[in-house]
Fold each of these.
Amino acid sequence: MNPHSVAESVRLYMQERMPGIPVHTALDNGGLRLPYLLVQATANSEIVPGNATWELTLALELHTSAHETDGPDARSAFAEALQALCKHDARLELNAAAPDFHLYALRLTLLDRAEVQDDSFVQHAYLRAVAQF
């Protein structure tokens, strides 16, 4: 089971749909410049023991400049990212490109309140994924 392959597949998928914003995973986030989208996948539990079917949390964070980016523009960019990932075809396209898993479900579970961290305006979203490795 490799949750990083899910994060990397989502990173590549999002990079194609958001060409103006670099997309990174937690493993390749050194020296980031604003704006950027961060993708993380965490395995929660094996749903079907011995079948390698896992429930994962997929986290998206859009970091933009708190000083240079207008709030509505940043919110609009994040909404576009979520729309791209939550549409029905996204799961099918991710499965077509997936190296070692099959994605059964992907749905938005939580939009967290946006916050300012240092010089960044950060927006968070969490999705539930079910994948078999």
Amino acid sequence: MEESTLILTYAGLGLVVMMIGFIIFLQGTILEHPEQQQTLGRRVRNIGTGLFAIGLAYVVGCIVIAII
């Protein structure tokens, strides 16, 4: 497998992690609206934000490797 194809595959996996993190973030935002579930919503949002950040860092790393 060529290096460029491999890097694009890894960047695609990073995008998947970003999208999963974004979906989890949205679920946490939805959960936060009822007053009883505010703390649960914040925790879920934090997990979603973390996954989004990890995915973004992964995609940026793959792009930097592809440029070099």
Amino acid sequence: MNHNYLIPANSKKSMLILGFFTPVDLAIFGTGCAFTLIMLLVFNSKVGLGSVMLLLAPALIATFLVMPVPNYHNILQLITNIFTFLLGRKRYYWKGWCVKDEK
């Protein structure tokens, strides 16, 4: 084999629906689209562009959250990581292999 290893580039991608979405992502997207569809059926959208944009806002926000981005699963995961970093612990304690060697 001459030390040639075959490592799949995106091995976790096979665990996602259509290679991009988790069930939570599809639930967020489906809920946003369903809510938008209900609002379009209930409210009069002949008023103007601003009111149509407000009626389409849930679907647009849901699409923005589940849109794939490089180096992260999607924007929702990126926002979660940012909040976890900003609101998480700032002082880290050493738990390495030589922790018992310190006095």
Amino acid sequence: MIQLRKASWPHWACLLLLAALSLSCGKKTGDLSSLKADAVAAEKRNDFSGALTIYRQAYLLAPTDRDVLYGLGSVYKKTLMPDSALVYFRRARVLNPNDRAINKELVQLCPQFFDYQCAIDAISALIATGDNEKMYWPILGDLYYRNEDFGQAARYYELLMAEYPNDRIYYLHLSGSYSYLQKFKESNDILLKYIDRFGPSGEALANIAVNYINLKRLDIAEDYFRQSLEFNPDHVPTLINLANVLSSQDDMDKKREALAIYKKNRPYTPPIYNLDSLIPALEMELGIDSSGQ
């Protein structure tokens, strides 16, 4: 009986197999480089859909690669999907904290999603890698203000006001920062400097009045509210604030004036001012019934 021998691989076939395995093992890195180059090329010719497809393929191969993460962020930004762009720029920054291109993108994108600390951190990295802090004073003041870090905001607005004494916005921002810090006298000092330099305005005078309310000087607050109304007699928030100050003083004539202001402006006053409660309470205090008798 003839027995068939098992087929065996010739020596040359084994060598070919080893060579093929070697090529396949070395192809992964080459593929990543090719994918990145193809994605960049697609992005340059504004084929953003194609670029995204290629970058996603590259991401599967190398999810921590800086160029892939940055490329995904860049294309998503260009296709008006800033939320997705921010995801990838954030990931890229975690792995590359001092990368200037990444941090510049975050300075632009983070405030759109109310993440002001993210933008502040990105600016800090840009300063640490060579930028002059002075060029960021305006945006840092605004970012710290929005982030409710009013101490830092005041620091930058002080610098800006000293550097640009003819730019009125920095006076108002600085006074606002001081008010939030409950430095009401300091806030008024800045507003008075504003008035000395630029002349009185309804906004500045009303802000001084509000600070005097917090300083428990209702009589002075009343005077500044009245001065503010000379610039804008129909400004409802100022009218209601004046009425609040009048109704809080121990003077029946002022309380009656406050009631008249409340009633006259009731149709135009937002519910947040709570006139539906203030009017009957003040009428009761004045001994007036709800029919106005």
